[in-house]
Amino acid sequence: MLLKNPQHLLILGSRVLQLFRLERHSLLMLHGGWTVSAEKCNLHWNPPLNDGGAGISHYIIEKRETSRVTWTEVETHVEAVSYKVTKLVPGKEYIFRIAAVNKFGIGEFLESDPFIAQNPFTTPSTPSTPTASAVTGDSITLTWERPETDGGSEIDGYILEKRDKEGVRWTKCNRRRLNDLRFRCTGLTEGHYYQFRVLAENAAGVGAPSEPSEYIKVCEATYPPGPPTNPKVTNYSSTTVSLTWSKPVSDGGSRISGYIIEKREKQGIRWVRVNKKPVYDLRVKASGLREACEYEFRVFAENAAGLSEPSLPCPLTLAEDPKFLPSPPAKPTIIDSSRSSITLSWNKPLFDGGAPVTGYKVEFRKSTEEDWTAGVYNTDQTEFTVTGLTSGTEYIFIVRSINKIGISEPSPETDPQVAIEREEEPRFDISTEMRKTLLVKDGTPIIRISIVVASTCKLFKCKVL
């Protein structure tokens, strides 16, 4: 027999069971604006405070647009307490609701606050009105300035549009998105008048168009050329800098007759002309610079109509002699050895790279192996003893030079050298006072003794230790 009662008791014969109601979720929220976009969002919630006496098996998620009354399923089996919802309609306002499920059934739904599916950023503001910098019989070169705001997302590029005065429709000038603030629109009809506007684009989309330009007539005309592009330093010394650049995008309808180059010191205000007469090549060598000063350079193009605007200045360049890696030392020489060490010496490199050699790196390897081991990383001497070697093992050595730029290529390898006591003929300089006892290094039995005589000497029987 089953009875309904306020205490939620179920009486079955002599057994009484207490029933639990599946409580509402304690929290449903959207992750912050950084995870809500025009087409997706992340939902997050906490489990119910009461699981109804049985573990929560999963959750059901439904959604509806605020303009509708019917709910649609998003997912009917979600085991986690978060879910990424996709395929939202940009600009629509949504409400989500979630219900927990256990083996006894579905709990009550908990609804979220309404929210609009939109990006956390907007399209860029309008660029400046494009202006013509050069006109020919079939083209017009336009320039413009960046928008005041990028809408919170980096600008990806620009779209330039044109409209013939005899037409009403705007058409694109560029097939691909423009990354520069300048574009030469070609294929125009000579004698026609055209109007231009530009739009900026970011991740949110294409912004509003700029104010249209005035109508511009396509005709052969002569204007000052556009500015040269891409000025860069190709070589330098303590008193000179070599500079190159590229031709202007537009010659203004007249042949480029030459280029003017100007320089300015880092702390200076005034630009100073480098060349007295225009140069005709796309390169120049500026001389008479002050050593250790930083300079920037800019270039003007010239035609029959006059000088162009200056190019963008190249990066600051320090007037100094260039520095390189030093050359390696000559082949090292083995000058001594023992059972656990080998001493080698070498000469300084022929070329220090323009910067003083500050040290040397000594490396060695067993003749049967290929991997090199550093004996010392930076010694300022031209002689070094490598210790910790294995007696009777054959070793090969190289040396590298070091300056402030880096480490040189390796020197030629030494001849293989075995770590053993070095065998030499004993030699004694007894030009000074004869010692009563001579100490001889007992490497091998003495076979012959050479004596260096300064003037006269007497021979005595020597005690060999």
Automatic annotation (TrEMBL):
GO biological process terms held by the UniProt record: cardiac muscle tissue development; sarcomere organization
PROSITE patterns: FN3
Alphabetically ordered keywords of this record: Immunoglobulin domain, Repeat
Cross-referenced InterPro entries: FN3_dom, FN3_sf, Ig-like_fold
Ranges that cross the membrane: none
Repeat among keywords: yes
One GO MF term: structural constituent of muscle
Tree of life domain: Eukaryota
Occurrences of domain Fibronectin type-III (ranges): 26-120, 126-221, 227-321, 328-421
GO CC, alphabetical: M band
Pfam families listed in its UniProt record: fn3
Record-linked SMART domains: FN3
Protein name (Swiss-Prot/TrEMBL): Fibronectin type-III domain-containing protein
